[in-house]
Amino acid sequence: MSIEIANVGKRFGGFVALDDVSVSIPAGQLTALLGPSGGGKSTLLRIIAGLERADTGRVEIDGVDATGLPPQKRNVGFVFQHYAAFKHLSVRRNVAFGLEIRKRGRDEIRRRVDELLALVHLEQFADRLPSQLSGGQRQRMALARALAVEPTVLLLDEPFGALDAKVRKELRDWLRRLHDEVHVTTVFVTHDQEEALEVADEIVVINEGRVEQIGSPDQLYDAPANEFVMRFLGPVTQLGDQLVRPHDLQIRTGAAAPAAVAGRVSRVTRVGFEIRVDVTTEPGQVVAVTLTRNEFLALGVDTGAAVWLTIAPGSPTTTAAASRPVTAAPSLAGSR
């Protein structure tokens, strides 16, 4: 089911959480609301769910104006970061809870719960308590419980934020496969750029209560609308007044190429299969370049070597604000 958010505004006292936000989410799509903490993404999700009331604007779900509807009238499934499980109920009873309060028949509940436990690979844990599950298993239980009532929209608020990196990676892959099976319109909040780029069909970048850009992961990464999107969606460095991805920079030795910038290698760091090379240009700007191990070995340079820097043709760039420092930005993993 499609979701239309039109001119939504929300204030908490003097704080503007959302400022005239409009987003169109097609039916069956997996959409990420991505942005820094406090940017407004969770507030927008809660307004879609009916857990918060917008001050201005409207929300439509499948063509129906849901702006004034309470949460129980919106047929929305909501999964929180911390599971919100009933600790005294088994996994089976947790998943069945929404069906039981809707007075569904016993056979229907049993059949639906069995289907969902199989879907999320928890059938062997049906009789355990939530405390007997791992974090990843509890989150899969929470997703099964949200899906039990067959919602038209599934909303996930930082669903993997409380888990360690390895489990987050596994659940990202699992969520993408699950969505491809059930095809429910899904919106999830995250501040993790890699999570959004890997899982989502479309990303809505929100910052300071406003939408900065909407597009596919490829569109946002390869054609950022502005400096904020460029900096937020992946590692960046700065060459002159241009922001550029470190892997889009080329290091040359010998004679200068057209538009090349002279510098010297000031630091070399190996991180797994990557070699990160810091080059200090003649104006004193530190520029980060990312190379593969084979590319670095082929160059044959080391600390102190004189080199030339160029931006690879066709690479996405944007002009940096004059007030920004001219130091290398952190890597993708470090900027979450």
TrEMBL record:
Gene Ontology cellular-component annotations: ATP-binding cassette (ABC) transporter complex
Gene Ontology molecular function, alphabetical: ABC-type quaternary ammonium compound transporting activity; ABC-type sulfate transporter activity; ATP binding; ATP hydrolysis activity
ABC transporter domain span: 3-233
Highest taxon in the source lineage: Bacteria
Sequence segments annotated as region (Disordered): 316-336
InterPro entries with a match to the protein in the record: AAA+_ATPase, ABC_SmlMolc_Importer, ABC_transporter-like_ATP-bd, ABC_transporter-like_CS, Mo/tungstate-bd_C_term_dom, P-loop_NTPase, Sulph_transpt1, TOBE-like
EC number of the protein: 7.6.2.9
CDD domains: ABC_CysA_sulfate_importer
Transport in keyword set: yes
Keywords: ATP-binding, Cell membrane, Membrane, Nucleotide-binding, Sulfate transport, Translocase, Transport
NCBIfam families attached to this UniProt entry: 3a0106s01
Protein name: ABC-type quaternary amine transporter
